[in-house]
Design a protein that fits this description.
The two termini are about 50 Å apart. The chain is built from 13 helices and 20 strands. About 35% of the residues lie in helices and about 25% in strands. The mean pLDDT is about 95. α1 runs parallel beside α2, α4 crosses α7 (about 130-140) and α9 crosses α13. α12 links the parallel β17 (about 315-325) and β18. It is α/β, with parallel strands linked by helices and about 425 residues long. It has an eight-stranded mixed beta sheet, sandwiched between helices. A six-stranded parallel beta sheet has the order 3-2-1-4-5-6, with helices on both faces. The chain folds into two domains: about 10-180, 3-Layer(aba) Sandwich (Rossmann fold), CATH 3.40.50.1950; about 190-280 and about 300-410, Rossmann fold, CATH 3.40.50.
Length: about 425
């Protein structure tokens, strides 16, 4: 499975002889399916040209503040990145990052980003062993940076020892591994995503604004967490996620029929789809013609996929979504959780710039006895945080269930 597919990787290139390796790094990351953007320092341009990276990444290359034309491009880049990999990371760059300096474009982006920071050191062996460098590395590790390498061997200066930047293939593998975890290892997860369409006639239908992005992000994050994932999707303009079993459907009834067999064999069910609440009572066999005056449509309830799964004799851990247009998310989320009889609800406000038709979202997660707010972020990163929380709650429920079973067994002896 290609865990880099669709991921946003920002590569920072600093002024070291190993900068030539960064070109191959960019090429390999793109070949693995990632989108790659490159930020070069001024000294990096003395070793390799920006045009090389532009050709390999198929993206503009940022070099200094003159490339920050809007004045906020560095913030946009910081938000865009799923990972920041500085390769080569020179001794000077490590010192700048440790000090939290933002006096060049790369430093400002690293300081403004919440994306995990990965550093591939490259320097002379004596510079690597210097206590100042080691102190900077220790500080960066404590702050959460991942130090990738360095390797050992002959260096450009003729010395032999630690300080060589890791090979591009190794760094791409480390990038790939950084998206993989075992939080749901061995489990089966079913996710529904996107809207449904309920036909009025052969050319018209009732639907909603769901893009499917949140559900797809949850499916990808569950796969990265080690789960076997099945995705049941309404009509969306999104590519099939790598490593996920995708079933495409159209109506709420289609989604129910596709989901039920999968849900009976799964451990976790995430109902992220915006399933229609109502459908036309009848579907016209021919296109309805325009007529003078109004037209009355008779509607009837559509299939309730989430409630049906939750009502199964042995339901999986069920997570529902609640899209609301007002700010009383907590009330609506708790009400939906109780009415559907499910384990967790992810509630979000929909409107301009967030929710439907947007790459960003916020989520209020509620469960029995607790809640947490996932602040506004890209749906890709929210999907990861959502799966982390689901994994925690699933394990908590399993522990409670096992404890209760042991207590019951003990009392019957």
């Amino acid at each position: 499975m290609d865990f880099l597919s669709g991921k946003h990787i920002l590569v920072g290139v600093c002024g070291g002889i190993a900068a030539y390796k960064s070109a191959e790094l960019v090429r390999l990351a793109r070949a693995a399916g990632a989108r790659v953007r490159v930020v070069m320092t001024a000294s990096a341009a003395e070793f390799i040209g920006a045009r090389t990276f532009q050709a390999l990444s198929a993206e503009p290359v940022w070099r200094d503040w003159t490339d920050d034309r809007s004045g906020m491009d560095h913030i946009d880049l910081a938000r865009w990145a799923d990972r920041i990999l500085v390769a080569p990371a020179t001794a000077d760059r490590l010192a700048r990052l440790a000090q939290g300096r933002a006096d060049d474009l790369l430093g400002a982006i690293c300081l403004a980003s919440q994306a995990p920071l990965m550093l591939a050191p490259s320097m002379n062996q004596a510079m690597w062993r210097n206590p100042a460098t080691q102190d900077n590395l220790a500080l960066l590790r404590r702050r959460g940076a991942r130090i990738c390498g360095p390797g050992e061997g002959e260096q450009a200066c003729g010395d032999v020892g630690p300080g060589r930047m890791l090979e591009p293939g190794v760094l791409v593998q480390m990038l790939t591994d950084s998206f993989r975890n075992g939080a749901l290892a061995g489990l089966k997860v079913v996710v529904t995503a996107g809207p449904t369409r309920e036909a009025l006639d052969p050319v018209r239908y009732l639907s909603n604004r769901s893009s499917g992005k949140m559900g797809y992000a949850a499916a990808v994050a569950a796969r990265e967490a080690g789960a076997e994932v099945a995705l049941v999707s309404g009509p969306v303009a999104l590519p099939a996620p790598a490593g996920v079993a995708l079933t495409r459907v159209e109506t709420a009834q289609d989604m129910l029929e596709a989901t039920l067999p999968l849900a009976r064999a799964c451990d976790i069910f995430i109902a992220a789809a915006a399933v229609a609440d109502y459908r036309p009572a009848t579907t016209a066999a021919q296109k309805l013609k325009r007529q003078a005056g109004g037209r009355t449509l008779a509607l009837e309830p559509a299939a309730d996929v989430l409630a049906t799964v939750a009502a199964m004799p042995r339901p999986p851990f069920c997570v529902g979504f609640a899209a609301e247009t007002d700010d009383n998310l907590q009330h609506h989320a708790h009400k939906k959780r109780l009415s559907k009889g499910i384990d967790m609800v992810a509630a979000n406000r929909v409107g301009p710039g967030v929710g439907f038709d947007s790459d960003e979202n916020t989520l209020l997660l509620v469960w029995e006895g607790g809640q947490t707010m996932l602040e506004q972020d890209t749906k890709t990163r929210l999907g990861v945080r959502l799966i982390e929380c689901i994994a925690d709650r699933f394990r908590a429920r399993q522990t409670t269930t096992e404890s209760h079973a042991e207590h019951t067994t003990e009392n019957t002896r």
